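Researcher: First entry.
Model:
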Amino acid sequence: MRAVVTGATGFVGPRLLRLLNEPVVLTRSPERARDAIGTLTSRIYAWDPMQGPPPADAFDGVDTVFHLAGESVAEGRWSAAQKARIRDSRLIGTRHLVQGIAALDTRPATLVSASAVGYYGNRGDAELTETAPPAKDFLAGVCVDWEAEAMAAEASGVRVVTARTGIALGTGGGALGRMLTPFKMGAGGPLGNGKQWMPWIHVADLASLYVHAATTPSLRGAMNAVAPNPVRNSEFTTALAAAVGRPAVVPVPYFGLRLAFGEFAQVLFHSQRVLPKVALESGFRFRYPLITEALAEIMGTKATAA
């Protein structure tokens, strides 16, 4: 597989690059990318997703595009300006990417574009497969429009898979990187009553699932990129506390996180029992289907730079 990857310097990107043969990277800062992932690729092209389509030369000999780029939803408070950056980085960036693909004489066969379980919003105990309708909050609206921009590539004959990704867990950063310090200090605890469902996935499974989507011609449209066994927040808290060998019994109140994160705190308390029906029915096998197995592997492995 010869692939172009956007968002390659993020948490998931380097894991994906390791699974590819001579990947091409599109990035705002080639110098930063060379420092971060230079050993994983020799082809790096400058591209600002907000300014226009990527350079056509980057797609020479390419059959797959993995589009992972987008402003982090967990960085900073959700001011009006930050929410605009979150939305525009996904919609405008994806639109420009699709425009660039459409203009090529020889187009890649497949586009695997990241999306998020934010599509489903707060849904209690309902089991959510890919056919579940979207919510009506901010993140859901972003995901709906983001996926629509990616699916527009179908008009150019490109097969599109939109991977609705859950909480990616692994060494070297991501959500777990933010959680470990308080848990190691014995200050971790469930969010509120801990009953909300958490859709998670080991980062190694996530990278493999992206490749599976690219190499399985029957897949098209939405695919939940989550482990097959979602857990309640209280179960996750217990498993993580056991993995670090520290207690975690004091609940984290909503009002405290609201003060720290603003509107984004609502997302942390959402309950999303998301299931990877499409992935399982297409033959994908998870290496880490259980949260205890995933955390044991992560905590027992030396962190690698990502």
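Researcher: Second entry.
Model:
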Amino acid sequence: MQTALTNNGTTAPVAALKSLTELNKALGDGLRLQILRLLKSESFGVLELCRIIDMRQSALSHHLKILANANLVSTRREGNSIFYRRAFLSDDDPYRDIKESVFDQVDQLAIAKSAEKKISQIQSERAQQSLSFFNKNADKFHEKQGLIVAHDDYSSVLHDVIDSLGLSDKASVLEVGPGEGLLLTELATKFKKLIALDNSREMLDKSKQAIKQSKYNSVQFVLGDTAVARKQDINSDLIIFDMVLHHISSPAITFKDAAALLNDDGFLLIVDLSTHDQDWVRESCGDLWLGFDESDLNHWANKAGLVAGQSSYLGLRNGFQIQIRVFKKL
């Protein structure tokens, strides 16, 4: 193993010195620190970051490469785009303490008003893209969703997970994005207080019709997203996102909203796709995200003050994988 002489006369592996040099290089630039601040709890594509920072793609890519070489950011491919987020710090990283300290200090910096405005615009554009799809395809949603997964493919496992939570029938349950009401009508057989939240009026009307046909009357319907629910002081013991998170503009913000809506000891239940590379689902099914890594969900939950619990993974015949994840508010 190659070694180099340090100032105190001891030796250190050349690889370790190289990684430390790359780390110091990455942290020795104000713009790169700004990028780390922007990626505190959100992921952005290269072009989105170019808009926020007002920089040419070639110049920004240079800075992102330096951050990636220092293991300060991680990449994720979303179709033809590369998204960046902060790297998760592992226990075996020899410079974890340094990186943690830097992240803590960077997070105390304010984001420029102009950058905040652009971030808000990007998130609004993402949300509008998803909402437009559902408003145009409400009558075809079941058919389009079936291209990936049918509710029956995982419903028995999902209900096993729900039953294992030990909630009473008096528990308050919120389903976000109930779609055509398949799960909602099933939940109505278990719980006496249900809330259906959807930002698409067309899809919410379909849920209402499903509940009406099932002759249940214990469901409150709310038009809007989790931010609207927070303003209405809605609190729940269980919040469910059933194949919905990949349609949401900012999963990180949604986790924080969900944590605020949960009662103490409440549960957040996420049913969604694991990471995949099937880019056709964007146009065909209105997906904003190509599934999620387990580590991404854990990271957003941790930032929101939620603790990861049990999980279940189901492989589908068409190559997709469903993940059912439980997070608890302590």
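Model: Note on the second entry: Residues 88 and 296 are 9 Å apart (CA to CA).
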